[in-house]
Each structure stands twice: as structure tokens, then as C-alpha cells.
Specification:
Radius of gyration of chain D: 21 Å
Number of strands of chain D: 0
Oligomer: heterotetramer
Largest interface: A-C, 54 and 46 residues
Structural class of chain D: mainly alpha
Distance between the termini of chain D: 42 Å
Largest sheet of chain B: 5 strands, mixed
CATH class of chain B: Alpha Beta
Chains: A mainly alpha (395), B alpha/beta (163), C alpha+beta (169), D mainly alpha (338)
Number of helices of chain B: 3
Distance between the termini of chain B: 59 Å
Radius of gyration of chain B: 18 Å
Largest sheet of chain D: none
Order of helices and strands of chain B: HEEHEEEEHE
């Protein structure tokens, strides 16, 4: 009984008249046409994580798209309120599990903002080095996912080969392949192990050697790829900005906003790199932006390895981290966009409030906006454009 | 349609925002700290302050909305970014057990989901919001708002008795 | 489209190269990769060295360590000291964050290279180290002491108070 | 012994026995092809593919069949059961029937029909029926979309498929596949794929579309409509659909080889193997099937409207133009015709 009631209420909440029908209601009634309601996900083979899209279809054209989240919600913000400051870092790893390093970095920046602690330069360089490797390990699979969604299975395996090799580097440096817990408040956990510099250097060179072949030649010129992605998910700069989109999804419309340059943090002011933009604002443009950002990341990693200073890797935070009352903000450019952390302290050794602004969550608003009017198969490339991660939007 | 990003150097922009917001609205407090313009506004002024920021001053990006439960009152932080290094942080406080504040979705459409999330987690209602459903929690039969300090979580082991 | 099919043929060339290329699969159960020095596997405890300071139990974000503490004169010095009679690590909860390893003052808890834990029952994953078994389902002492809420005064309405800094660090 | 061989001379018995042999071949071919598919995909993906069951994983198909036989056959609660269960059969039978007219070697053909091409065209069209039955019977939005796509796609691609056959028919002057192979001669440059290159490409592309493989696997479309018409199938019914897919893929390659690549004919006269010429047929068919798989693991999928554009706006005009060119050339050089 409860179930029936719940379902009725639920349906009532979701079946408001859609704003833009493609066939006008009069014609629909006259010919007795009906739209199909379809649930895409949460257990959909190509869906990014546990997302449910409630779709209203007119034939194969989407009339309304309503993302439903919460299938992976762990209330990380509440858990963080009950953990000591250092013990929150391994939890942030679980947020956006394709960009763990950036999550840790954002949280640590926020707490360091509260503490006013001096970070040794070597630690800053190691952080940047790790974050850029992480960006590679996130952008390359996201290109693979885009292709997987278009029906080509092969690029994802080449992409995961690269991710696997980067993870091997991470394992040597941090001790874990995915949930690193490496960046700490005040620095990093440990110095780079001996010999890893050469390994990273070798890996970067081998990646450069076959990057063009495996991720550009295989994909970029393919006529089917072009016809599936060009002008799909097209958005204007204004739309993207209004929806609060950041990251490659914003840059592919031509807005050159990159936190690394505009709100510099860590060692980025000392490094040379460009913000990559494209003008088209469609799925193909976002692919090109990601490819170019990978190349930029490779350049940043090389500079980091060359300019790496010597010295300590941990600032003096004291044995027990107990920031004064106040607020701290940390903001990093994660592979998906702006990742911000807002930490409120009440003077005790657990945070009073932690708020994560995850790019996956904010970018997903785009779906409601740009999916209606596209065909059903176009939803998947648009998901590749937005590239959300389940752990990110569900916190 | 292209957008125009703000011009001028950081300091002059910060001062422009500071004056632009301070002259139009009766602010409780305002100051510039590093690259942040910190504004404390009255609850009812917030949509107007944000409208000024968006339309007159051209600050394009609403980064996030944070709510802090101060047990008895709620503290809201609206973080605005102009894409070029300056940040405007608007703070306000809502008193009372049934907090209501005006929505800013008309000014910043991206606030839509941020406000939904805030409503879900704290029960802060946003008057005039077009679609105030809960994004995370169950849409019905769940009357709690988990991030309130009064919502206690247990440290008990969750699999007790599951075997 | 002047060069129809060129891109597809180029892509097919790439896949053909890989068809005859070196394979990268590791045949897992037969071939095991050597783990790096820092890799974090399942935890283990050297009970002889443990001084039952409860640091690891407090810091653990998942509350996966439970310790039963008594006073005992273990080293025969005539002075009873804290002694861990029961020590359980619940691997079904552990997330290998190594916080406990870092706080341990005598380095008696450490990561091994084991990572293949499996059981039919979640409770079987709780590994006992002490003399007495500890029930992992019973709530351990809260990792954070009863703190929260600075007593007496109400939390400030607006933050950005001048930072004193003496409390930090 | 002699009497048994004599029995083969009796037409109905010969037909039955040879049909049984062909059915056996088709069912085994499906198993072998799944194996080949997985190996090829594995090697392209830098993996090894299945390599645990038997030497180098060669017994994997047997294990698969055993698993699928023992699996429960689940049908959705509100499905139209007879239609639901009939669909795999309706898909499999046409794929198996076409083998009746495929000439493996000069005399190794079950039924040398003089209208074999018509038979082929008619039988492959039935395949669409199975797809529609599957989509309708399983009562799921995804299935229905898949079936609609499948029906639209298969019917649309019949047109370029048939048109591209006409050039061959005009050149050989016969509808019998055996005659067509004979007419192509035993040198690689006299086969029809050179002169009829646009027709060959059209036939090849529409063949891929007809057997619903990447880049034309929209009815399946696992990343958008999950599994399309076959989403609700499990166990042996699913296996039958898979077998039908692989059998139709094999039959499409065999027909391509027969029509354009000289069938059993050796590429050069001195390579003639006499009674073993079916080896040439096998090699060519395997090659075509490999290209199917190679394409499958290299390219993404088209969208429905682009698929239709390709079919109606590119392939149909192309075949029509080349039909006129062929006819004109045959008028000018009468020696081209058979």
C-alpha cells in the first residue's frame, strides 16, 4: 500500500507538463499520439555511474530529461563533521574517484587556509606533479568512455592501459592505486621514492610516442565519430555559463577559464602552460579540448620534474591539527572543472562543516538544458561531454 | 552568443565590485580581503545583491552555496566568481526554525541545484524556486534533513545482526 | 565529404597494428606483480610491542580497530601498565588509509603485502590479535571524544573573526 | 555401402541429408565464430581473449553452450509468450536456410536453384520479422525501440542490397549462384568485384547493415538501448539469437564471396586445387568475416537518421548510377556479358 502511494506521489511530482514539446499538444491529441516514458539507468551499461534519467520520448526524440541522483549518496559532508581533520582526507578520495588527488588537494588547501601553514616548495611541486598525472589518468579514460558510449569498444581499453601505467606510478609513490591519501595538511605524506623520477620521465616519453596514434589517429578523423559528435550537445557560451559549467565542458565553448591560471594555487604560477579552448561547444570540441589538455599536462609534468626543488615535504602543522575558528576555502581545477571545498571550523579538532562543490554535480545541470530536442542515442555522447562521476555528484 | 569577461586589473575590479555593491544596498558589513570581496547582507536583500552582481557588475559564475547550521540560525554563503581572479562572497543569516529565503535561480540559473541540495540537506526553503525537489534523499516519507546538527548519526556498526 | 573513409581506414590501421602488437594482460593468479615498497595491504599488529595507547583506534575514520585494554605488569617491572588483551582489526571496514600506522608511537601496527581477503561472512573478516577475542560488532569507544560544541558560548553568526593563531600549530 | 550411396541419388533423401549437414555446419560455425570474435577482439584490445578452457581456450564455445543450455529461460511477466519464444526461431531459420543455395564447390551445393538470388533476397527479408517479433513480444520500451530500429534498418537496406545484386545478374545473365561463380572465371581480375567496385562496396556495407553489426548495430545499441530487441532474452533463446546473428554474418560473407569474389574459383589458374577448391571458398569467406570483425572493433556506431541518409541518399543513387554505367558498357562491348 505504501509502495502504491509512494509511486503515485512520485509520478505526480515528475509528470508536470514539459515546457517544450516537439509536437504541439493539439496535434498529439488529434492523432492520439503518445510519448513514451523511459527510465535510463541507474543500471544502464553505458551510464556514468549510478544515474537515472527519466526521459520522455517522442519517437526517438527526447522531449524531457530529468536526472535523478542519490543512488550513491553517502553524505560525506556529515561524515566529515564527525572525523578529525586528517581523517577526512581518505574520505575525500571517495568523492570523485577519477580525480582523487584533486579532491585531497582541494580539502588540504582549505584546511591550510585556516591554519596559515607554510608549505615547502618541494611539496607544492610534488602535489602539482601528482595532480597532473591524475589529470592524464582521468582525461584519457574519459575519451575512452566517450567512444564506448558511441559504440566503439576499443579506445577504452587503450585508455585504461595508460591509466594502469599511471596507477603503477601512483602505487610506487603513494602506496595505493586509487585511494591515495597522499596529500596531507601541510605537505605530502612522503618524499618521492628514489628512482621514480626516471620512471615518470620514461612513461611520459612513451606516452608521447603513441598518444597520437592511439587517441588521435584512431578517433579524430573517423567520419562516423565526426558525424556522431559534431553539433551534438551544442551549447552557447551563455548557456554554459548560466548553468555553472566549468572545466573542459566550459572551455570547449571558448571561455578560457582555468582555475590554475585565474585563481592560481600551489606551484602553478611558476609553470608554463596554456589554457586550451575551442569555439564549437559540442561534443567533438570537448574531445579536442581534452586531447589538448593531456598534451599540456605532459608539458607541466616535464617542467615539474625539471624544476623540482630539494628540501622538506611537510610543513609544520603540529602533532594535532586544531585550526582556529573561521572559514577556509580551497579551490582546484579538477579534470571536470572547479572543485571547491569550504571548511568551517569551530576551534575543535573536527570540522564544524565541510562543503564540497563538485564539478560533476554542477555540470550535470546541463543535461536538463541541452538534451531535449536531441535523439535518444545522442544522450550518451552528451554524457561524455559533461563527463560526470557518480561519486562526485552524489558526495 | 558570446559572453564578455571582465577587464581591468584585479585590484580595480575588486574595488569596483566593493563600491558597486556597497552603494546600492544596505549592507551590514563589507570588506576586501586579498582577492575576496566579503559582503554580509540582510536575508531579504540577498537576491537583489546577487542581481546587482550579475547584471550590473557582470560577475558571471555562482560557484556554490554553503549553509552552516548554527543551531538556531543558518548561515548562508554565496560564492561568486568573475572568472578572472576576483571572488565576491555574500553571507547572510536566517533565523528561526522554518528558514525561508528568496531564490536566486532567476539571476543565476545554476543556483537551481545548489538550492535543491541545500533544501534537501538543511530544510531551508527557497521561495520562488521552480523545482524544489530533493535531489538526494527519498522524495517522500523522509522528513529529516541530514546535515542539521540535530540529526545525529550513530557510530554503531551498521551490519550488526546482519550476519 | 571529399576524403570519405580516410579516417575510418586510418583508425582500422591502428587497430590492425595492435592486433599483432605486444599483449599487456597479466595472467593474474599465476603471475603476480611485485608490489612496491610503499604499497598498503592488510594491516597486522605486533602484539609484543603494543603499548595499548589507543591512538590507532581513535584516529581510525572507519572505526575498524577495537582494543580491549587492561592494566598488567607485562614486562615484570613491577609497575602495571596498559596492556591490550584484545585487539581486532575488522577488514570489512578498513580502507587502508594508513592513518593508524602513522600515529602508532612504537610502530607495532603496519601494512603487509597481503591484499586478497575473502570470506563468506563479513564477521570472518575481523581478525583477532589479542589473547581475548573482541566482538567487532560492539560499538568501540567513539573515535572522537565527546567534544563538539565549544561549551558555553554560542557559535558566532558571522565568521572571519581575526585569527589569533596561537591555537594553531 | 553401395546402396547407401545410391540413396544419395534419390532427391528427397539427398536433400534431407545435405540439409542436415548444412545445419550442423551452421550451428558449429556460430560457435566457432563467437570464439573467433572474442579472440580477434582480444588481440585488438591487447588482451589474450578467452584462454582458460582447453588449450589456448579452444574449448570455450563448448563451455559457453553448456552454460547456456543449463541456464533458466526467463521471460518477462507480461510478455506475449508465443511471440516472445517464436522470435529466436524466426530469426534463426532464415539464416540457416540461405545456406541451401550457397555453392561451396562446383558440385557441393544443396539445391542449385535457378532463382537462387531471388531465394536469398526473399529469405533474408524474413529476418526482420524475427526482430519485430522479439521487440513486440518482450514488452519493454528498450525492446520496442530496438525492434522499430531493426525493422526500419533491415527493410531500408534491402533496397541497396538488391540493387547492387543487379549488376552481377546483368553481367552473368543468370540468377543461379553456381552459374554466377562459373561466369567469373579463375583469375582474380576477372572477378566481378573489380569492375563492379561500387556495387561490391554497396553490397558489403548493406550486408553489414543487414546482419546488424557495428557500425550498423542500432537495433542492439548496447550503449543507448542496452540490448535492443534481445534485452529480455536469456539462456537458450538468447543463444539462438546469437547463433542467428553469427550464421547470418557467415552467410552474408559467403554470398559476398560467391557474387563478387569468385566463389570457389582460385585467384590464379595454376592454383586450381580441383576437388579441394572449397578451400578457396573457405579462405575468402573467412577473410570477409575477419574484415567484419575488424571493422566492428574499430569504429563507433551511426545514428538512425545518419544510417537512413547513408542508405537512401548515398548507396541507392550510387547503385543506380553504376547500373546504368554497366548497362551502357554492356551495350557498347557485348563481350562483357556472359
Amino acid at each position: 500500500m505504501l509502495g502504491e502511494e509512494r509511486r503515485a506521489q512520485h509520478e505526480g511530482a515528475l509528470t508536470e507538463p514539459p515546457s517544450s514539446r516537439l509536437v504541439s499538444p493539439d496535434i498529439r491529441d488529434e492523432f492520439g499520439l503518445e510519448t513514451i516514458d523511459m527510465n535510463m539507468g541507474p543500471q544502464h551499461p553505458a551510464m556514468h555511474g549510478l544515474l537515472r534519467l527519466i526521459l520522455e520520448l517522442d519517437g526517438e526524440t527526447v522531449v524531457r530529461c530529468d536526472p535523478v541522483m542519490g543512488y550513491l549518496h553517502r553524505c560525506q559532508e556529515k561524515i566529515a563533521e564527525n572525523r578529525m581533520y586528517p581523517a577526512v582526507i581518505p574520505l575525500t578520495d571517495r568523492l570523485d574517484y577519477f580525480a582523487n588527488m584533486h579532491n585531497e588537494h582541494g580539502y588540504c588547501l582549505a584546511v591550510e587556509d585556516l591554519l596559515d601553514v607554510e608549505i615547502p616548495p618541494r611539496a607544492e611541486y610534488i602535489r602539482v606533479l601528482m595532480c597532473e598525472l591524475m589529470r592524464l589518468a582521468s582525461h584519457i579514460p574519459s575519451i575512452g568512455f566517450l567512444m564506448l558510449e558511441l559504440g566503439a569498444f576499443t579506445p577504452i581499453l587503450y585508455a585504461f592501459r595508460e591509466r594502469e601505467r599511471i596507477q603503477a606510478i601512483f602505487e610506487e609513490v603513494t602506496g595505493a592505486r586509487m585511494m591515495f591519501h597522499y596529500i596531507r595538511i601541510g605537505g605530502v605524506k612522503a618524499d618521492l621514492p628514489p628512482g621514480i623520477t626516471q620512471k615518470i620521465w620514461d612513461y611520459i616519453e612513451s606516452l608521447e610516442a603513441h598518444f597520437q596514434r592511439d587517441f588521435v589517429d584512431l578517433i579524430q578523423g573517423n567520419e562516423i565519430f565526426i558525424s556522431r559528435t559534431r553539433n551534438v550537445g551544442k551549447m552557447t557560451q551563455e548557456q554554459a555559463v548560466e548553468m555553472g559549467v566549468t572545466g573542459p565542458a566550459l572551455r570547449c565553448t571558448g571561455v578560457d577559464f582555468d582555475i590554475r591560471l585565474d585563481y592560481p594555487y600551489s606551484a602553478y604560477p611558476e609553470l608554463q602552460f596554456e589554457v586550451v579552448t575551442d569555439t564549437a561547444g559540442d561534443v567533438e570540441a570537448s574531445y579536442r579540448v581534452r586531447i589538448a589538455e593531456c598534451l599540456q599536462s605532459i608539458q607541466i609534468i616535464k617542467q615539474c620534474l625539471e624544476q623540482m626543488p630539494e628540501g622538506e615535504v611537510m610543513g609544520d602543522t603540529g602533532r594535532r591539527i586544531r585550526p582556529p575558528e573561521g572559514e577556509g576555502f580551497g579551490r582546484v581545477e579538477s579534470p571536470r572543472g572547479e572543485y571547491s571545498v569550504h571548511v568551517v571550523s569551530d576551534g575543535s579538532d573536527t570540522p564544524y562543516r565541510v562543503h564540497y562543490r563538485d564539478p560533476s554535480f554542477c555540470n550535470m545541470q546541463l543535461l536538463q538544458e541541452i538534451v531535449p530536442g536531441h535523439y535518444l542515442p545522442d544522450i550518451m555522447p552528451i554524457m561524455g561531454l559533461v563527463d560526470p562521476v557518480s561519486g562526485g555528484w552524489d558526495k | 552568443m558570446t559572453i564578455t569577461l571582465p577587464e581591468g586589473d584585479l585590484q580595480s575590479r575588486l574595488e569596483r565590485y566593493f563600491e558597486g555593491l556597497g552603494n546600492r544596498h544596505g549592507l551590514e558589513e563589507s570588506e576586501i580581503i586579498n582577492n575576496v570581496v566579503l559582503i554580509v547582507a540582510k536575508k531579504d536583500d540577498v537576491p537583489a545583491v546577487l542581481a546587482t552582481a550579475r547584471e550590473t557588475l557582470g560577475i558571471l559564475h555562482l560557484s556554490f552555496i554553503t549553509i552552516v547550521d548554527r543551531e538556531g540560525s543558518f548561515e548562508l554563503t554565496y560564492e561568486l566568481m568573475d572568472f578572472r581572479g576576483a571572488t565576491v562572497r555574500v553571507k547572510t543569516t536566517i533565523e528561526g526554525d522554518e528558514p525561508v529565503i528568496g531564490t536566486v535561480t532567476g539571476v543565476y540559473p545554476t543556483a537551481n541545484w545548489h538550492e535543491r541540495e541545500a533544501y534537501d540537506m538543511f530544510g531551508v526553503a527557497f521561495a520562488g524556486h521552480p523545482d524544489l525537489r530533493r535531489p538526494y534523499m527519498w522524495q517522500d516519507h523522509f522528513d529529516h534533513h541530514p546535515l542539521l546538527k540535530s540529526f545525529e548519526i550513530s557510530t554503531k556498526r551498521t551490519f550488526e545482526g546482519l550476519r | 565529404m571529399p576524403q570519405v573513409g580516410q579516417g575510418i581506414l586510418k583508425g582500422m590501421g591502428v587497430t590492425l597494428q595492435h592486433l599483432f602488437g605486444q599483449k599487456i594482460t597479466r595472467q593474474y593468479p599465476e603471475y603476480k606483480r611485485e608490489l612496491p615498497e610503499r604499497s598498503r595491504g592488510m594491516l597486522t599488529v605486533d602484539m609484543d610491542r603494543c603499548i595499548a595507547c589507543l591512538q590507532c583506534m581513535r584516529i581510525c575514520p572507519d572505526h575498524c580497530i577495537s582494543i580491549e585494554q587492561t592494566k598488567r605488569d607485562a614486562d615484570g617491572s613491577g609497575k602495571p601498565k596498559p596492556f591490550a588483551v584484545g585487539f581486532v582489526i575488522d577488514d570489512s571496514r578498513c580502507m587502508y588509509c594508513s592513518l593508524c600506522v602513522e600515529v602508532c608511537p612504537v610502530n607495532c601496527i603496519y601494512h603487509t603485502e597481503e591484499f586478497e581477503a575473502q570470506a563468506y561472512n563479513r564477521l570472518e573478516l575481523a581478525r583477532q590479535f589479542g589473547e581475548l577475542p573482541v566482538d567487532p560488532t560492539v560499538d568501540p569507544k567513539p573515535a572522537v571524544g565527546k567534544k563538539k560544541k565549544p561549551t558555553g558560548k554560542k557559535a558566532p553568526k558571522t565568521v572571519e573573526k581575526p585569527r589569533t593563531g596561537d591555537e594553531a600549530a | 555401402m553401395q546402396t547407401v550411396l545410391n540413396l544419395l541419388e534419390v532427391e528427397p533423401i539427398r536433400l534431407l541429408i545435405s540439409f542436415g549437414a548444412v545445419l550442423f555446419l551452421v550451428l558449429n560455425l556460430a560457435a566457432v565464430l563467437t570464439m573467433a570474435e572474442r579472440k580477434v577482439s582480444g588481440y585488438i584490445h591487447l588482451r589474450y581473449g578467452p584462454n582458460r578452457v582447453g588449450p589456448r581456450g579452444l574449448l570455450q564455445p563448448a563451455a559457453d553452450v553448456f552454460k547456456l543450455f543449463t541456464k533458466e529461460n526467463v521471460s518477462p511477466g507480461r510478455s506475449d509468450l508465443w511471440v516472445f519464444l517464436g522470435a529466436p526461431i524466426a530469426m534463426f531459420i532464415p539464416a540457416a536456410l540461405v545456406w541451401l543455395v550457397v555453392p561451396f564447390a562446383p558440385d557441393a551445393v544443396v539445391a542449385d536453384l535457378n532463382v537462387a538470388i531471388l531465394f536469398f533476397v526473399a529469405i533474408t527479408s524474413i529476418g526482420a520479422l524475427g526482430v519485430v517479433m522479439a521487440g513486440y513480444g518482450s514488452r519493454s520500451a528498450f525492446s520496442l525501440l530496438g525492434a522499430l530500429r531493426g525493422a526500419a534498418q533491415m527493410i531500408s537496406y534491402e533496397v541497396p542490397l538488391i540493387l547492387s545484386l543487379l549488376g552481377v545478374v546483368m553481367l552473368s545473365g543468370s540468377l543461379s549462384l553456381v552459374d554466377i561463380v562459373r561466369a567469373q572465371g579463375d583469375t582474380i581480375w576477372s572477378w566481378y568485384f573489380l569492375f563492379q567496385l561500387p556495387m561490391f562496396l554497396t553490397f558489403y556495407i548493406s550486408g553489414i547493415a543487414e546482419v546488424k553489426r557495428v557500425p550498423f548495430d542500432l537495433p542492439e545499441g548496447e550503449s543507448e538501448i542496452v540490448g535492443g530487441f534481445m534485452i529480455e532474452y536469456s539462456g537458450m533463446t538468447w543463444a539462438l539469437i546469437q547463433a542467428a546473428e553469427f550464421a547470418s554474418m557467415a552467410v552474408m560473407s559467403a554470398i559476398t564471396v560467391t557474387l563478387f569474389l569468385g566463389g570457389w574459383q582460385p585467384p590464379l589458374p595454376f592454383l586450381d586445387l580441383g576437388a579441394f577448391n572449397w578451400v578457396w571458398f573457405g579462405i575468402k569467406t573467412a577473410l570477409i568475416m575477419f574484415t567484419f570483425q575488424w571493422i566492428r572493433w574499430s569504429v563507433p556506431r551511426l545514428r538512425m537518421d545518419q544510417l537512413m541518409d547513408l542508405g537512401w541518399k548515398v548507396l541507392v543513387p550510387l547503385t543506380l548510377i553504376w547500373l546504368f554505367v554497366t548497362a551502357g558498357l554492356m551495350l557498347v562491348f557485348p563481350s562483357l556479358g556472359a
